[in-house]
Amino acid sequence: MTAYVLVDIDVTDPARYEDYKSLAAASIAQYGGRYVVRGGKVEVLEGPWPTSRFVMLEFADGDAARRWYNSPEYATAKTIRQEAADARMMLVES
């Protein structure tokens, strides 16, 4: 069952966030994930959604996504992201 990690991000420290992006990309690939959406223009069509950046990752299943999120390979990147941005993240299985 394919799983998606949806991330709504407001970057507060763009320079530090650049460090996050390279570390995160390597860890995502290591756990079999891929970017479906990575930034780009966001247009809200309905309802309040004050986002400045949106990312969608795809994994083979929810277990793979959880392994990535809780992995030692992502730990440093996660810490940097938490310092450089405010984010809301969810896992959706289809």
Describe the structure in your own words.
This protein is an alpha+beta fold and 94 residues long. It is built from three helices and four strands. It has a four-stranded antiparallel sheet. Helix 1 runs antiparallel to helix 3. The longest helix has 17 residues. The radius of gyration is 13 Å and the shape is globular. The protein starts with a strand and ends with a strand. The model has no long low-confidence stretch (mean pLDDT 94).
In short:
With 94 residues, this protein is α+β, with helices and mostly antiparallel strands. It has helices at residues 14-30, 62-69, 72-84; strands at residues 3-11, 34-38, 53-59, 85-93.
What labels describe this entry?
94 residues
Write the layout of secondary structure elements.
Layout: E1 3-11, H1 14-30, E2 34-38, E3 53-59, H2 62-69, H3 72-84, E4 85-93
Helix pairs in contact: 1-3
Please state the oligomeric state of the protein chains shown: single chain
- Helix/strand-derived category reads alpha+beta
Radius of gyration: 13 Å
Roughly what percent helix? 40-55%
How many β-strand stretches?
4
Mean pLDDT: 94
* Order of the strands making up the biggest sheet: 2-3-1-4
**DSSP helix count?**
3
**Low-confidence parts:** none
Order of helices and strands: EHEEHHE
Q: β content, as a range? A: 25-35%
The biggest beta sheet is recorded as: 4 strands, antiparallel
Overall form: globular
Question: Gap between N and C termini, in Å?
Answer: 6 Å
